[in-house]
């Protein structure tokens, strides 16, 4: 995954796939955000398993990504989070199919919102920084 993030910053620019300088601070920020997310999810997942109030949930969500590298970064980030796994990613439709073990109260909308905010939102923020 680290290689995917570094490759994105080095090899891809805007829509024209031109060269763009390497951004170590962005990679560091993303990795820190991912580690915090993994740690939080691990604690939540343990609580859900401990109290035996969980159900498997499978859903497909369309992402607002500009290229396949962003799709790969999000798919890998989902898989690294405890209790979740990317079952399939479709580069043509820009979708990911996610399998998660969630609490019985969790809704699909809530699960999608978490993915959009943490992973997709962070990458969108980096795109905005590039355009300004």
What does it look like?
This protein has helices at residues 2-11, 24-50, 68-80, 108-131; strands at 54-62, 84-90, 95-103. The longest helix has 27 residues, at 24-50. α3 (68-80) crosses α4. Strands 1-3-2 form a 3-stranded antiparallel sheet. The chain has one domain (2-131). The chain contains 4 helices and 3 strands. Helices cover 56% and strands 19% of the residues. It has 132 residues and is of the alpha+beta class.
Which key features would you list for this structure?
alpha+beta, single chain, 4 helices, about 130 residues
Briefly characterize the structure:
The chain has helices at 2-11, 24-50, 68-80, 108-131, and strands at 54-62, 84-90, 95-103. A 3-stranded antiparallel beta sheet has the order 1-3-2. Helices cover 56% and strands 19% of the residues.
- Order of adjacent strands in the largest pleated sheet: 1-3-2
Structural class: alpha+beta
Report the count of strand segments: 3
Counting H and I runs of at least 4 residues, what is the number of helices? Answer: 4
| Radius of gyration over C-alpha positions, nearest whole angstrom | 15 Å
Number of domains: 1
The biggest beta sheet reads: 3 strands, antiparallel
Uncertain segments are none
Q: List SSEs in N-to-C order.
A: HHEHEEH
Return the average pLDDT rounded to an integer. 81
Report helical residue fraction. Answer: 55-70%
Distance between the termini: 26 Å
Give the percentage of residues in beta strands.
15-25%
Shape estimate: globular
